[in-house]
Amino acid sequence: MEHLIGSSEKETYCDKRYCKINMRISQQKPIENRECIPQQEKVHENPQQEIELEDINGIFTCEICIEPISANDKFRNKDLCSHHFCQDCIAKYIEAKVQDNNTAKIECPGVHCDQFLDLFTCKLMIPSNLFSKWCDVLCEDYVLGFERSYCPNRNCMALVVNEGEINYGTLKKARCPNCKQWFCFQCKVAWHAGYRCEESGNLRDWNDIAFGKLVERMHGARRPACGSCVERKEDARQVFVMSVEEI
Questions:
Q1: What is the pTM of this model?
Q2: Chain centroid, CA 102 distance in Å
Q3: What is the mean pLDDT of residues 72-85?
Q4: What's the chain look like in SS3?
Q5: What was the pLDDT predicted at 159?
Q6: How many CB atoms lie within 10 A of CB 229?
Q7: Where does the RING-type domain start and stop, copy by copy (predicted)?
Q8: Ranges 17-31, 42-56, 167-181, most confident
Q9: Measured on CA atoms in the order 69, 73, 78, 79, is the torsion positive or negative?
Q10: How does 88-118 read in b/e, with b if 16+ C-beta sit within 10 Å?
Q11: For residues 199 and 125, which has the higher predicted lDDT (pLDDT)?
């Protein structure tokens, strides 16, 4: 004998069944909240993870020449960034930056990328003369940030860089690291012991040089007005020099 369900019983039965179904759905992740990003559009925080996924496909599209390239021809910027460039385009890009603009720090050609190209990673894909030129530009860019002078010794002429922050702008007596000779960093001539820079051009013979070395060894100085040599004794704060007329 069939049992007839009334309207009130139907509503109770439907409510219970709906609650069970709703409970099952709630235990699963909602469809609208699931991640629906295609595999190729996912952004990996670690460039190495993206490189490993890309190597499975084997074919890439260069962002410069828009040509398909194989995984073996893909440029890898030492895992600093993971843009899709072929080695040939990167080599031409470096050549244009170095030869035409003398650019030392070459930025990645990727859009909105703030990374720089790694020098030694690019070494194998560019000619040796271009690599040497790039190294020279980098060294020159580094040296320009410091006070520099060339050794006045004609047989040396080495570049001497003042990397010290304490004596910056005031360094005078310097020693060439190549020929080991002392010279004046300011007037760029051989060291003029006991004489000022403006007097260094008046040195005539070895007597002047020997006298200047003696003054320097005795911690003496020359008066700007008359050029007389004075020696400071102990803790004297003032030095008085009498001229011939005053004697």
A1: 0.47
A2: 15
A3: 85
A4: CCCCCCHHHHHHHHHHHHHHHHHHHHHCCCHHHCCCCCHHHCCCCCHHHHHHHHHHHCEEECCCCCCEEEHHHECCCCCCCCCCCEHHHHHHHHHHHHHHHCCCCCECCCCCCCCECCCCCCHHHCCHHHHHHHHHHHHHHHHCCCEEEECCCCCCCCEEEECCCCCCCCCCEEECCCCCCEEECCCCCECCCCCCHHHHHHCCCHHHHHHHHHHHHCCEEECCCCCCEEECCCCCCCCCCCCHHHC
A5: 86
A6: 15
A7: 58-247, 62-109
A8: 167-181
A9: positive
A10: bbbbebbeebbeeeebbebebbbeeeeeebe
A11: 125
Give the model confidence (pLDDT) of 189-245 as tens digits. 888 777 777 776 665 566 666 766 766 666 665 655 555 566 666 665 665 554 444
What local confidence, expressed as pLDDT, does residue 117 receive? Answer: 93
> Which residues, listed in sequence order, are joined to residue 148 by a DSSP beta bridge?
161
| Locus of tokens 């005795």 | 218
- The CA radius of gyration of the chain, in Å to the nearest whole number, is 39
Amino acid at 14: C
Q: State the average pLDDT for the chain.
A: 72
Closest to 187 measured CA to CA, from 177, 204, 199: 199
Q: Rounded to whole angstroms, how far apart are CA atoms 94 and 107?
A: 10
Quick one: which of 146, 154, 215 has its CA closest to 179? 154
Hey, how many other C-beta atoms are within 10 angstroms of the C-beta on 122? 21
Q: Which domains does the chain have, with CATH numbers?
A: 46-143 (3.30.40.10), 146-190 (no CATH), 192-233 (no CATH)
Residue 98, amino acid: V
Measured in degrees and rounded to the nearest 5, phi and psi for residue 40 equal: -75, -10
